[in-house]
Specification:
Length: about 400
Amino acid sequence: MLVGVDLGMGHSFDPTLDELAQLAESAGDEPVARLVARRKAPDAALFVGSGKADEIKALVAEHRASGVLFDQALSPAQQRNLERHLGVQVADRTALILEIFARRAKSHEGKLQVELARLQYLATRLVRRWSHLERQRGGAGLRGGPGEAQIELDRRMISERIKSVKARLTKVKRQHDTQRKARAKSGALRVSLVGYTNAGKSTLFNALVKARVYAADQLFATLDTTTRSLYLDGTQQSAALSDTVGFIRDLPHKLVEAFRATLQEATEADLLLHVVDASSPQSQQQREEVERVLAEIGAQDLPQVLVYNKLDALHPLPRTMHDWMPRGDGTLVPRVFVSAAVGTGLDRLRELIASVAAGKALRPPEAPPSEGAASRPAIAGQSDPSAQTTNTA
Ligand SMILES: Nc1nc2c(ncn2[C@@H]2O[C@H](COP(=O)(O)OP(=O)(O)OP(=O)(O)O)[C@@H](O)[C@H]2O)c(=O)[nH]1
Ligand SMILES: [Mg+2]
């Protein structure tokens, strides 16, 4: 059962709970009921009020739910009290995201990063009380009581383990640094795909470099960075294109910290392809969220192309397939509409990448972008024969 609580201004709240449902499905759960509530402030004991908690309990019984997932972060005490009150497993968004990451991590580095994040999460749960962790309930993740080796460790052992994982991560990171330096030396333009999870980064990656990385209608299908050479027509140059982990709102802080090395790859790119799911009703918020994380990791000033993906699922179609969008700081970034799945608009995207590889800046035409200019853009320093955009995808 999914529960979201609207805490008003300054707190993220999704009345549809669709994203939470996607997260649950990506973790192998089946959402059977949803409930949203509204509160001025979270209840210290139960997060929701006791009336709502009873309502949840009734719905749990009615739908025979085996657990309750909250879209907001619960304190360890709230989680414990809710489990006692409801008689089923209770988890929050953070635990859910950590669990998905744990399931998906494949590379040595990815696994280490997830382990670090989980240990750090457990460490915060141990601060107040730790008896609730001792209940053995099984299950794959952090939810429902760990049923895992970590719970036997005391806090001191956890912190030792954190130290050792960090040391191993540093070693792996050093190896990756060497590989990255080699790529930098090769002189190829480094291009990173970034964007909200499920935007279609891996699908676009596969379409551009004819690879077959895992792409799926799941959140966080990709955890590990993959890099392939992208040949740029007419330039006799290649770019090194990287597919990376997706972003999500309220990404657990510990996770961002643990994945800093992976996210850092993005900051070392020469060009970011910011992939947005144009068909999502949340596309604007998702784009802002990605911009926020980019700023957090120091990548906000890198040249960027906005790639509005899933054009095939867009109704009505946009008036133009290429325009310029203002960013928070007022600068304009080029935007192209593509369909990674169908292959529409990729030539224009390749042209943009090639023009950056040729050392040209991504700048809109000189004239201030009036209505007309915005819909007839040219790429700076490049005559653009295909600027006559049509709306037929
Ligand atoms: N209709 C449509 N669906 C698309 C398009 N591109 C990707 N998808 C679908 O969107 C879903 C997510 O695609 P991915 O490529 O895995 O997305 P991602 O950004 O790599 O996601 P994560 O790795 O999970 O962060 C899949 O179900 C794709 O089939 C597109 O152009 N049109
Ligand atoms: Mg992916």
